[in-house]
Amino acid sequence: MKPVVALVGRPNVGKSTLFNRLTQTRDAIVADFAGLTRDRHYGNGRLGKHEFIVIDTGGFEPDAGSGIYKEMAKQTRQAVAEADVVIFVVDAREGLSAQDHDIANELRRLGKPCVLAANKAEGMHDGTKLVDFYELGFGDVHGVSAAHGQGMRDLVELALAPLNLPDPDDEADEDDVNKPIKLAVAGRPNVGKSTLINTWLGEERLVAFDLPGTTRDAISVPFERNGQRFELIDTAGLRRKGKVFEAIEKFSVVKTLQAIESANVVLLLLDATQGVTDQDAHIAGYILESGRAVVIAINKWDAVDSYQREQIQRQIETRLPFLKFASLHFISAIKRQGLGPVWQAIAQAHKSATRKMSTPVLTRLLLEAVQFQSPKRAGMFRPKLRYAHQGGMNPPVIIIHGNSLEHVTEAYKRFLEGRFRKEFDLVGTPLRIQFKSSQNPFADKDE
Known about the structure:
Number of domains: 3
Helix content: 25-40%
CATH architecture of the largest domain: 3-Layer(aba) Sandwich
Shape: elongated
Number of strands: 15
Structural class: alpha/beta
CATH topology of the largest domain: Rossmann fold
């Protein structure tokens, strides 16, 4: 198994920058703002042949009494419990603080191997400014610069050295079939996304706090159900553009959109107590534009009466008509109600999104559809549809070849889509149909 390295320290010492450097990604949000990271954030790092898992944590305040900072401290403690080794990050430029002492005492109490990294140490060649950090009692202080990539290799080697890692066996790359399904849970702030994932996992793996916008990063969590591996992605709630004031919120929107783009299936979570809002429609539209398979779940279904339920179902029909292909489920994440059918729908949506469609079958369906109902004539010409083949998956793309196809109407395109969906049982995924007209070889010749 891969060793786990947790990054711990007070707010704004550069843990997320270090995380990005170790994973060679930009997965953690980075800005000059204390307390930016709130949940645990996982990533994959590599040193030579050895791979390891890195956990980025929120600013650690061991004595936080209540509110979101208490929740963040709880997440950090759980990250340390999961880790094989801890990198304790301090700020070389600001120097030693009382909070660093508090964190050091807490790490000693938790009893995990710990390496002390003084970040932002670029230009400190003599190391005299790092002497004070020896008071923390973790031995040598290793000056690094996450922003400039200085000292990274030595730091990781020191962190992994006590673990006595064996040489990794050469393993064949996994087939696409065996890769985990990436499932993003998306929706407006405070609809219960983190609560739902915690319910699936059976632990308080993500901060679930009664405050809209608690989740700022898009957090990826490994999960297995009935032998199928998943990566559950809890995304930051998308707000209306007019309410995105902070730069941090803007980063969160970008992370959410990136999470949707990278997912195989998106679970669009709506709030039964608030109905289907314009913002829900915007998020649904983005999922559709991204071509992701989608399942719709109405959370907090137990908290509304029969009249509200009828209203919500009508709102879905009027505000989300473009997601008619998606299955609809009514759940209560906190009471574990209705979750089984959601998993079945997710599996079906992924299967539909990655369905292979043979050219002979597609062409037969196309010709049968044309025989049943020909496309509408445009002037002197009627579009002539000759054959079809698959042009991609997730979402499935069908490319139709013929003549004068630019005149095919949207209504006829929907007619064809219905025929293809029925034949291949495509549920929960967008289906894109593209037309390619043959060029007239005599069009450019002089009469």
